[in-house]
Structures are given as C-alpha cells and as structure tokens.
Amino acid sequence: MSDRRNLFNKVWDLHAVRTLPNQQTQLFIGLHLIHEVTSPQAFEILRERGLKVAYPDQTVATVDHIVPTADQSRPFQDGLAEQMMSAIEQNCDEFGVRLLDLKDGRQGIVHVVGPEQGLTQPGMTIVCGDSHTSTHGAFGSIAIGIGTSNVAQVLATQTMFLNRPKVRRITVNGELAPGVYAKDVILHIIQQLGVQGGVGYAYEYAGSTFDAMTMEERMTVCNMSIEGGARCGYINPDEKTVEYLRGKPFSPKGGEFEKAADWWLSLASGDEAEFDDEVTFNASDIEPTVTWGITPAQSVGVSQPLPKLADSPAGERVLLGEALDFMGLAEGEPIRGTKIDVAFIGSCTNGRISDLREAARVAEGHKVADGVKAIVVPGSQLVRQQAMEEGLDKIFEAAGFEWRGAGCSMCLAMNPDKLQGREVCASSSNRNFKGRQGSPTGRTLLMSPAMVAAAAIEGQVVDIREFAGAAV
C-alpha cells in the first residue's frame, strides 16, 4: 500500500521520540543553528544547571545580527554588540560548539551559511532561535524558529516539545513572466492568504513554478513562510536539491552521498499524499510586487493602485487606515513613483549570490539617484568573496552603492545600519513592521533585489519591466 503521508509527516514521524499526554511530540532535532542574540541566556541556563551541550557536533554557531557591516574591526564601537560577540566566543569555546566567526572565512547570516556549507539537508529537523529558520525548508526539511528557552532545551537534550501542525499544499503552476521573481511569488501568496492565514499549518510549496526555481529562489520563498503565519514551509527535494548539495563541505562523501541522495528523493510527497488543505495560484497572475503598508500582506502589484478603504472588507479597514496614515500614502494612489531615501539589498531572504548578480545587472551603467543612500550587504563571507571574484562589487561601487561586509544589516537594525526619522527604504528583506529598520517612524517597502536596484537609481519605486537597460 502506498504511503499517503506528505513529506512533513514522514520527517516528523522519523524524528518523534514520544507523544506526551497533552499530545505534543518530543521531537529529536537533527541540526541546531545558533547565533549571538538568542544564545547567551540559553548557555547561562546550562551553566546554572550544570548541564553540557548534548550533541555539540550537531550544533553550529555563527554571528550575524549585531555584526556591523561597514567597519568589522574589533572591538566593535557598540559596547553591547562587542559584549554579545565576546559571549558567543566564550560560550562556544567552553561548550565545544563550532563557531563560524569573523576570522573563520565562512561567517554570515545563519540561514545563508547553513545551506552553503551543506549543513542543511533533506529529511532533517532543524531549529534556530530566529524567525526565518523556515528558509531551510527549501531542502525538504522541517525547519522551525524557536525562542531562547527552547534554545536551552535543545542544547541540553537535542529535543524539544512541539504541537504537530496541519499541512497545507500551496500549488503555483506556470512560467513566471520576465521581471517577476521568487520574492514576488511569496509576497503574492502572503497577500492572498494573509499574515494569519498559515497559523496552525506547515506550508508545502508545489507545482511547476517551484519546480523551475533554483535552490536559492526556493530559499527566498520558504524564508518568508513565517510572514504568512505558517509554522514552517518546505519544498520537496529533487535533482536540483541533490546537485546543490553535492560537494558541499558537510554533505556526505563518495558512495555515502549517493545513498543519501536516494533517501532524500524518497521523502518527497507522493501522488497520493494527503493534505489538510490545498490552495492553487497561477504564475501568470503574479507581477512585480511591492509592500506599501506595515505587514508583508499589505502589498500590490507595481502596476496596481493602493486599496481604497470603501472597497476593503469592514474588518480590515482600521488596519488599512493605520497603515496608510503611518506610511504617508493615500488610498487609491499608485505605488509606482513613491519616493525613497534608502535602498537595501541583502538579508537572509535576498542576500545570496544570485540576488547580487540580478541587482548588479540592473545597476550596471547607471548611477544611484541624488539623495539616496544605497547599500549592498552579502549574506556571507563566501557570497562576498564570490561576488568580488565576479566583479559585482566594482559594478555596485561604480553605480554609487556602498559595498559592505556580511551580516543581517538593515533587515532588523540590531547594528549600526538603521533608518533615520521618516526615511523610506526600498528593501529586499522580509519585514516591514513599524520600527523594524531601526527608526520608530521609518518606512519600509519590500520588493525583489532587482526592484530595489532600480528604485535606488530612479529615486522612486519603478516597474522593473520598464526600467531602462534592465532587459528583463
């Protein structure tokens, strides 16, 4: 009899240690990724209780959130950042955890480093004290963001207690039009289903649109699953997954890799797999998308006007009005032409080499508009090195962009990269909440890296499909 379980439930069952009386599952964790912000308190809990890290070989640390990207010399100018940096160095040394720090050459955003090192593999359970752990689901893993108390629990036991979510399959079929990217696909899905639409669910992304995506594009989609309220999001492993992982530092070697690859492919949800809910979209309905409000669901296609309160559901009008007021926008006006002050290309959503290549292709031969501050922040030291080998840094600098070191940067502003006052930022990151980029009154417009580059050059939101020289 065929297995009707989808990938999520297969992997969950393989890692289930036991079911508790309250129906939670004690789940074994295959990979625990940690960083400098949510780990200090967890290590202190271990010290207080005289505990060790249960499986240090399955725990990997990096530094990203507080790391400055303009001047990375030590000690950091920010005393708190230096304190947190010193803490993770001491903790990893004391507890025997591998640390990819600034001297390592592999440092970077935790959700960029995991895949590029081959730490992230299909069929794994992966946790990290960071919301966007869902990124790793692009490889067919269950990847979940956790809190600091959970970080301590996983360090001490390599397990944690979780409620099993339901699984919704989101199918997108068709070829994306020129100028439409993975970022636009996930923004469109969140726009349609809402920021609470995924509560209680894991999302399986399926269909020919995702099949055609590269692994880096799939990571962009899975990264923002949490913004739609889902516990996690994943894509079934295929030959692209296998080839991406082949030869990676932490991937299996030789014959063991081929055995692993066969098993990885066997995990995919079969034709008879069952789901708790299904939603289908057409790729042809998706255009370059820009957020205009204060949640990732408040977005429009770049050719579309902002919503009108009278045309919106009654239950949404208060939030829509609040968002329009905060953003200084008027209902019914076009998003295209909105002036920007800052352009940010980077983050765990769009700071990989393919993102930088696409942005550089748009920027080449142009100049950043007067009065716009534009920065490019590679997602890891290896991405930065590869970009420089390809000459992308020279393209950006010639166009007037600042070329930075690796880190989270202006995505969340736990570092010197912050908006000032009411500045408007065109951002390739993942959140546009009030205060997200460091200023309580700063305003964020989320879009693809290509759209950010074009906005930086024009000084306003433009349609990448009509941008001179973009050749999309």
Features:
alpha/beta; Aconitase, domain 3; five-stranded parallel β-sheet; 3 domains; 472 residues; 19 strands; Aconitase, Domain 2
Distance between the termini: 47 Å
Structural class: alpha/beta
Mean pLDDT: 97
Architecture of the largest domain, CATH level 2?
2-Layer Sandwich
CATH-defined superfamily of the largest domain: Aconitase, domain 3
Family: Belongs to the aconitase/IPM isomerase family. LeuC type 1 subfamily.
Keywords: 4Fe-4S, Amino-acid biosynthesis, Branched-chain amino acid biosynthesis, Iron, Iron-sulfur, Leucine biosynthesis, Lyase, Metal-binding
Cofactor: [4Fe-4S] cluster
Pfam family, one: Aconitase
Provide the fold topology.
Layout: H1 7-15, E1 16-19, E2 25-28, E3 31-34, H2 40-49, E4 59-62, H3 79-95, E5 98-100, H4 110-116, E6 125-128, E7 142-145, H5 148-157, E8 159-162, E9 166-173, H6 182-193, E10 201-206, H7 208-212, H8 215-223, E11 232-235, H9 239-245, H10 255-266, E12 277-282, E13 289-291, E14 299-301, H11 317-327, E15 342-345, H12 347-350, H13 353-363, E16 373-376, H14 381-389, H15 392-399, E17 402-403, E18 424-427, E19 443-446, H16 449-458
Parallel strand pairs: 3-4, 3-6, 4-5, 6-7, 9-10, 9-12, 10-11, 15-16, 15-18, 16-17, 18-19
Antiparallel strand pairs: 1-2, 2-8, 13-14
Helix pairs in contact: 2-5, 6-8, 13-15, 13-16
GO molecular function, one term: 4 iron, 4 sulfur cluster binding
Cofactor: [4Fe-4S] cluster
Catalytic activity: (2R,3S)-3-isopropylmalate = (2S)-2-isopropylmalate
